[in-house]
Write a sequence for this structure.
């Protein structure tokens, strides 16, 4: 174990590890308050690995709130259990459950989310009566996500004699009640935040809703290191990533609507610095531990101080400096952020838009990013016909020729009759007017083109609905006909004359009639 730690550059224990590791080796229950990045994962992984052998069977269960944290904790167990050949299985939703069932049969440690573990218990694919070590990682987040009933159901499948370790960033009333109910003579460990005020610079900009995006673009373009941007809504995170990508910023989104494979791919690419800006929601980024994040942006203000603390705790770790920037625009955001200002212990600096010199280019880029994106986007769901494209091209060429003739006529009309030349200022003014007129015509043409595309999309949608209704009516009519034909068949069978006698009786009757006829 010591050699593995040295290979990964770990030579001295963190404060949380110094207090928790000896308590676990003594067999004590632990209630620890520590944030992500404080070294708490190794504080329970090292003692569990050291006390288990391959032939012991299933002995340890680690419950986590999110899939990303499940993969991360499983990776830490695998990394520091080399040489002992322990079976480690990560159990979470979004992937094949059959593969997890096969691996559980020969595993020693399970790292699971409560929902998928309940599914395995319902299928009787796993038995928890042999569990010796039970770990709650990010327990406060599991309670916030409504897993308390699932946790109690899981605990009913375990034996009472076990060692329970509970880790939480905050000790709320619910966490205290949970510890009193399931922990026995626990060691309480309370550590200060791993983020030091002298390393974390916090700033909030008071801006407007229209200038919020150009301000973010300005800040991201001047800070090209790893940045984490937080949003409150999943769909808005995806839209913001697309807008930033359209402005030349390498950005991707991480939210709950992505599949598990997509979420793992995005997290891995961001960890290896294949792109520089990650747009994430609180739930998706919970437990996400990525080194070298220099800036955290609150594009949408969190609703409570606890979420703000978790967000800003993603940077300024391990003695490195970092910056947390909040963009406050609406009245609701100002109201929530005032609560953060009154209750948060760290120092926060106020800045206004006058402190930032936004270039006209950035303001103009934001004035129509969606319009620009829509202009370059040919709506892949709608295809123009070739004759229509040729007709539009001829109309555009004819209109451009008319505009050139009109400008040429204006120039001839503006020339003085005495043969003298106009001065440069007048020519420049006319040129700017012509360019402005051309720009207005292009905007009008673009709006007309978008309107035609929207009308064509609505027509296609109406035609699809009409075909769907016709098909539904045909199916109903076909079912009615099939039902009527079945009833008629039954009635015809009832009217069919009954058979009289067997074939032998019929043959005897026929022979008797022939004899009588003779």
């Amino acid at each position: 174990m010591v050699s593995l730690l040295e290979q990964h550059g770990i030579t001295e224990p963190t404060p949380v590890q110094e207090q928790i590791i000896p308590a676990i080796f003594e067999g004590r229950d632990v209630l620890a308050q520590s944030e992500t990045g404080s070294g708490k994962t190794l504080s329970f992984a090292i003692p569990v690995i050291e006390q288990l052998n391959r032939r012991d069977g299933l002995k340890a269960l680690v419950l986590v709130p999110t899939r990303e944290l499940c993969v991360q904790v499983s990776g830490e167990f695998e990394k520091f259990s080399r040489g002992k050949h322990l079976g480690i299985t990560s159990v979470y939703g979004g992937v094949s459950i059959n593969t997890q069932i096969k691996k559980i049969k020969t595993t020693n440690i399970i790292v699971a989310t409560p929902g998928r573990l309940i599914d395995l218990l319902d299928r009787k694919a796993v038995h928890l009566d042999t569990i010796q070590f039970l770990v709650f990682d990010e327990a406060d987040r599991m309670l916030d996500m409504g897993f308390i009933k699932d946790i109690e159901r899981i605990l009913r499948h375990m034996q009472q004699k076990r060692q329970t370790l509970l880790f939480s960033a905050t000790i709320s009333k619910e966490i205290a009640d949970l510890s009193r109910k399931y922990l026995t003579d626990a060691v309480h460990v309370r550590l200060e935040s791993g983020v030091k005020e002298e390393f974390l610079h916090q700033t909030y900009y008071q801006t407007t809703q229209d200038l919020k995006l150009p301000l973010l673009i300005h800040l991201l373009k001047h800070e090209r290191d790893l940045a984490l941007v937080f949003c409150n809504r999943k769909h808005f995170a995806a839209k913001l990533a697309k807008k930033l990508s359209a402005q030349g910023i390498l950005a991707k989104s991480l939210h709950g609507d992505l599949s598990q494979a997509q979420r793992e791919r995005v997290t891995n690419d961001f960890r290896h610095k294949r792109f520089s800006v990650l747009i994430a929601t609180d739930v998706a980024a919970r437990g996400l531990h990525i080194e070298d994040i220099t800036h955290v942006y609150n594009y949408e203000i969190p609703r409570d101080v606890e979420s703000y603390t978790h967000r800003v705790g993603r940077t300024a770790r391990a003695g490195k400096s970092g910056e947390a920037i909040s963009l406050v625009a609406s009245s609701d955001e100002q109201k929530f952020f005032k609560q953060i200002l009154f209750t948060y212990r760290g120092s926060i600096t106020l800045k206004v838009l006058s402190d930032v010199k936004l270039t006209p280019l950035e303001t103009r880029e934001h004035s129509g990013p969606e319009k620009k994106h829509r202009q370059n986007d040919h709506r892949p769901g709608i295809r123009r016909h070739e004759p229509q494209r040729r007709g539009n091209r001829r109309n555009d060429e004819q209109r451009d020729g008319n505009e050139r003739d009109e400008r040429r006529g204006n120039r001839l009309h503006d020339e003085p009759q005495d043969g003298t030349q106009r001065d440069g200022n007048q020519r420049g003014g006319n040129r700017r007017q012509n360019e402005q007129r051309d720009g207005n015509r292009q905007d009008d043409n673009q709006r007309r083109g978008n309107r035609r595309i929207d009308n064509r999309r609505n027509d296609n949608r109406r035609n699809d609905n009409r075909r769907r209704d016709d098909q539904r009516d045909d199916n109903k009519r076909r079912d009615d006909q099939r039902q009527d034909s079945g009833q008629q068949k039954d009635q015809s069978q009832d009217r069919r004359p009954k058979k009289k006698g067997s074939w032998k009786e019929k043959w005897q009757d026929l022979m008797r009639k022939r004899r009588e006829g003779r």
About this structure: Residues 69 and 282 are 13 Å apart (CA to CA). The domain at 200-370 is CATH 3.40.50.300 (Rossmann fold). The longest strand covers residues 200-206.
